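Run log // design_07
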């Protein structure tokens, strides 16, 4: 096989791979993630005291470990991160990571948007996934 044929063969493989990768990047993400509705109901509809967990300042009505873990799974799914993105693994209640403090601000923002602007019957509620779509930093995605 001569060098020209090898060059064009490699070029064709490269172009095909580039097309495959770019088609995955342009896919519209799933707009109904598994835990998003649970997270929304847990942080928006509950106003009672927390009877489980430590240092839950803006999440209200958490009454079990399972409920707290489901809320955290929703955050993981919405932001595409693991627990240690926001939490210190040695002390989950610690506020030493700025991402955890920002999460509280964002939860408060979502609560404000839903209660002040999307309070009419039939309107979809905002979730973390609405903007983040599986990324730690929100990215605007055109929905077709």
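design_07 sequence
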């Amino acid at each position: 096989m001569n060098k020209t044929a090898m060059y064009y063969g490699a070029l064709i493989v490269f172009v095909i791979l580039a097309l495959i990768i770019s088609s995955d990047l342009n896919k519209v993400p799933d707009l109904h993630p598994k835990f998003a509705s649970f997270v929304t109901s847990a942080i928006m509809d509950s106003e009672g005291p927390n009877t489980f967990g430590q240092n839950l300042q803006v999440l209200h009505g958490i009454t079990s470990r399972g409920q707290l873990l489901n809320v955290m799974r929703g955050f993981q799914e919405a932001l595409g991160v693991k627990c240690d993105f926001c939490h210190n693994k040695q002390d989950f209640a610690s506020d030493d990571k700025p991402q955890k403090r920002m999460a509280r601000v964002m939860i408060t923002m979502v609560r404000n948007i839903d209660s002040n602007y999307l309070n009419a019957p039939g309107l979809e509620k905002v979730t973390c996934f609405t903007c983040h779509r599986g990324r730690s930093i929100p990215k605007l995605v055109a929905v077709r």
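Helices lie at 3-25, 36-44, 65-79, 98-116, 128-132.
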